[in-house]
Fold each of these.
Amino acid sequence: MATSSANANPARNEFFQQLAIRQQGETSSFKRLSDLTEELLDILNDQVNRDTTVLDEKLADYVFFPLSHIFRSHDQYPKRLIEVAIKCLTIVVHHGWKSNISPQILQQLLILLTFIIGGVPGREEARDLPEETELESLRALTALVAVAGTSAKAAAALTEEKLIPTLGHTVTVLLECVADGRTPAIQLEALRTLGCFYTGIKDQAALASFLPGIVSSLTKLLAKPRERRTGFSLAPYSQ
């Protein structure tokens, strides 16, 4: 009797069963939802440390489904919950979807993460984003742009005409993080994300449109007195 590849992989089945258990039950309270999301992160980290190949595209979709509900109402949830959900997202993007990420999901996540980091453009609002949540959002954005660079469809989705204003806002937010980030880690991660944009975006005209602003911002940063500067070094993304 023929056996499907999914059924023939005990590790994958075990991982799926663990995930299924975590998605059962009532999750209406913030405390319960936070606990479940923490458990999900532990499961994902444990699996990635043991065998990253188990987390494939289909399991990534399965994991992302409950996370998407959290992100849809991210401004209503505790920041710690959002931070943990973003950590899960980074694993899903980097180890699950990889080059198979949906262009539509890529665009949605680019908008989401940019808004979490920099707020909604044109809206004056008090920002109470914790430093660690901002850093994790930048790491997720780095992973997102890095995997986009490995897929022709995903890379093209970044520079679709309808997304150009969002992409421009993302670059602006990243430059603000580089110049005025609250910690060196935030500044460095924003630089890594910018570096991934330049290796991931294949549309040279789109890249050229952002170059003057990037050069200007980095020049201003380098012109600061030495004691006010952070020692930067671009490094490839790694999980």
Amino acid sequence: MLLGNRVAESLCRIRQPYHVYLSIDGGNEQAHDSNRGKDSFRRAVRGGHCLLRHRGESAWPHVSLYQLDLGVDEATYDAEFLNLAAQCDVWQRVTPIVANGSDPTYNDSLDPTLHWQADARGPQPNGACFWAGYSLSVSPTGDVSPCILTQIANPEALLGNLRNDSMDAIIGRASAFRERLEIDGRQSFSLCASCFKVSGKPRPPRAPIDLRDQLTPDKIAN
């Protein structure tokens, strides 16, 4: 499990405001593992609990449960998942992103598990998107990428590994990645060449709908 005691302790030693998003799909083991790999659901939930335990009463990191909506019936949500949701600062459910990075209007008639494959092309931006170099995606094995779409499927996206590299080194590589992208454009990286994600710097986050308000004691595991 990546988010064990050592990594959780190091994250909680950072004395400045920052956010950690726990990305979990569907709400139960079957849905998540079918998308992320066998046994990844339990490891993700345990890791989230570990991080919150080490954070204690501290305000940082701010921890959000970021659930991808795969159309799973809420009645089948896992009890440990709901328990984690109750302890996080925010629980939000979002529509999966389409594969080419564009932001289409969600189509209710589309199978949620296929939504990310939808083709919603438009004029392609050339500059760096607001993720590149600012938002880091971490795989269950600790590999770090500047892109949550391709992650480490493309060697260009590998910035390092949390187990082996310092955060200073990883952040330095992320900054260099963005700088090259801003100067040379998306065609300079094959993983960005066909992406339609909007360009620009990070935007103030939209206030999420906090699903914790829907939790009742009978839904939460003790």
Amino acid sequence: MRKFTKFISHHPRLVLLIMTMLLIPSIISYKNTGVNYNILSYLPADLKSTQGQNILDKDFKNAATVMVILDGSDRDAEELKKEIMKIDGVEDVISRTSIIGDSIPSDFLSDKIKNIFYSKGSTLMMVKFNEPASSFKTMNAIESIRNIQSNKKYLSGVSSLVKDTKDLIDKETVIYVGLAIVLGLIILSITNESTVIPFVFMLTIGYAVIYNFGTNIFLGEISYLTKAIAAVLQLAVTMDYSIFYITGMLKKRKKK
């Protein structure tokens, strides 16, 4: 072990080169590691809601659905329905015309039908997808539905919730990590006499975080919670160790 540590301390440039080269496979592995955004997969299998969702998926192939609420008339709803059906990943769109056709005017419909498909000038449709709610194909289809030019519309359902969760994590994780790095640099700059050491710490911790995410490829996929908090958590833990390490090293130098 002493020979190994001596080699590292006497060949810093070589070690830095090897560390940098290792970033390449780590980044590639991270890009190819799946992220599980399926919230129900983290719940116990014996829960009624989980069992019901599994039945919808296996028996009825109806687990990946989105409710679309459109502000507008039946004509607006039909135009939107045609556009949604063109999207890759959409299996079917169920609207009023899917059940009773378009030959009956809405004024002649029973109150029961009206209460299902209409409310305060809005029309309800249900979109079914080919793949599970957490698949990227389904999430891309939801994004395409949102981008369709139409009257104001709202999306609801498990599939939409999964998509919103993904977008929120992808957006805010960068902010949290950035804040953690800035605050970490401030703390390290205050507690250290050197102005270089804080940046060296952050560089080595950043390398370690990338290595950590890269090794997740052996797991096949990771939880979206892991993706959200792993970097900040590792930064916090390793920063403590780094402070202890540099403090001990400086004390030994002073004794010499």
Amino acid sequence: MVVSHLDNLVSIEDYEKRNDRFCLAVCILGSFFLCLFAVKSFFSGLYAYALTLTLFAVGASLLALYFWRSNNRRVLHLTIATGFTVINLFLLYTGGEDNTGIFWFYTYPLIVFTLLGARIGLILSVSVYAVSVFLLFYPELSHLLATYSLNTKLRFTGSMLFVIALGYLMEVSRVQAQRSSHRANAMLKMMATRDELTGLYNRRAIRDIFEQRIEKQTTLAICDVDFFKKINDRYGHEIGDKVLKKVAISLQHSLRETDVVVRWGGEEFLVLLPNTDLKEGINIIERMRYELSASSFEIAGHALNLSISAGIVSADEHESWDDMITMADKYLYQAKESGRNCSFADIDEQLLEIA
């Protein structure tokens, strides 16, 4: 059967929207603070440093512009993470103004974990951390421009390792909580749109499905299990429920992947046949009806022969959903009045008997 968007267990739409907002915020705030510190450095006489920060600010602004024009999120995230890596290593290497640039490193895990996820974020954070340790503790080999005290180096490397570990655990917890929330929401949505007994779509869901899949050539049928009340009265409601399950399975097996079967209510089922004209739809419903009536079912030790009656309509002949349902009900009633185990369609109101 057709799989609707209602069945998606883990939606990524909210995650992508959150990351989009985060990317835009990083670009805008990054440009703002880089420009701010570039101006401060310029008036402090650090012209080369001011020029470098200005170039970084321009890059962040171009990323913000790219964000609005491109849907390639992965490239954008990697570009932002790369740019942020370069800026932080630059600040650590040069020291920034009064050797305070190193403190911006504490924002690094937050950015990369949010943009790239826990696994890639951890790899990148640990790699950059290793580079920073090399720069700090081997200044002769790395030609480090800034001068840091041993106490600053030890405090930075220890606290930075803690921030990376904490950021990783928080990202893992966030993803797990998000997945649990999505699963819970999907389960609630499924409970609201699925029939508990048969697992089919219920009456509440079908209108949305119809509006999504409506085409000029769409056929709809309402089917009713023949003499179901007698089955319930004779064998009990438990057997009646099992009969409905068997009928639901039989209908699904007789239809195409694109078709939709709905528990319409009680012993009634609605069948939606997208991209199907009335003539083809009649053939499909008739085949479905024949396969059910030709089968023998053994339910809880009882041999039962089951059949359905159907009223069939086409979207071509009706202006609205309500009109289609009204006419399908009318034709279903005529099929039942004509002896059951048959279909009635709106081709010159011709009764369709089993061949």
